[in-house]
Amino acid sequence: MGTLCSHDSHPERGLSCDLTYEKLALEQGYRRIAGLDEVGRGALFGPVCAAAVVFDIAHAIPKGINDSKKLSAKQRVHLAESIREAAEDFSIAFVESSIIDRINILEATREAMRQAVNGLRQKPDYVLCDGIVITNLSTPQENIIKGDTRSISIAAASILAKVERDGLISRLDLEYPGYDLGNNKGYPTSNHLQALKSLGPTPYHRITFRGVRC
Q1: 189 domain residue, yes or no
Q2: CATH label of the domain that carries residue 42
Q3: What ranges make up the beta strands (E) of the chain?
């Protein structure tokens, strides 16, 4: 595994979602810096999704980028389009529910994040990741607690992953009506849990998760 740094607090860093971490990496001699995040870990239905985003911070970066959870669906969709246009590179990866059940959600999340990094057109020389140590990654990484609220690159990755996964779940909602997936996006709401009791799981449900397994 590459060099690993981990931060949960710092008097000069992480006060807001900005380019502080990216600039510090540049000062250390890194040039191609990827932000990395995932969505869907706590869902009962569907894949976990990860995204990696590389910005050239010498060029304009879309305004308003923040943790995807702090944005409305409309804001996320608009920003995702802007991020795709402005990014030097980006990659999105999914790990399906059947694999989640086989290897567990933490390892599946790490796999999605590795795939997102490996899916970039050009390998990054530094990775800023949100809260999870990515094993078997040769690229040096910095693990930042609540990184999607601190690093613009990580926040941008969180937006791309969220929009991509939400779109997939909305399409699957048409195939599997009755679970309120269009609203809950696969997460364990009361309507979703009740539907599981009444209808049983679909092939996309994570059968090892509490609330799905009988």
Answers
A1: no
A2: 3.30.420.10
A3: 4-7, 33-39, 48-54, 89-95, 126-130, 141-144
Is 174 a member of any domain?
A: no
Report the C-alpha gap between 122 and 140 in whole angstroms. Answer: 15
Domain around 20: 4-165
Reduce the secondary structure of 115-172 to three states and give it as a string: HHHHCCCCCCCEEEEECCCCCCCCCCEEEECCHHHCEHHHHHHHHHHHHHHHHHHHHH
- Name the residue type at position 107: E
Rounded to the nearest 10 degrees, what angle do helices 73-86 and 152-175 cross at? 120
**Residue 100: inside a domain:** yes
pLDDT digits (tens, 9 = 90+) for 116-171: 999 999 999 999 999 899 999 999 999 999 999 999 999 999 999 999 999 999 99
**Total domain count for the chain?**
1
Could you tell me if 117 and 111 are in contact, meaning their C-beta atoms sit under 8 angstroms apart? no
Q: Quick check: is 42 in a domain?
A: yes
Lookup: tokens for 124:
């990054």
pLDDT digits (tens, 9 = 90+) for 159-196: 999 999 999 999 999 999 999 999 999 999 999 999 99
CA quadruple 163, 164, 170, 173: dihedral sign = negative
Report the C-alpha gap between 159 and 39 in whole angstroms: 9
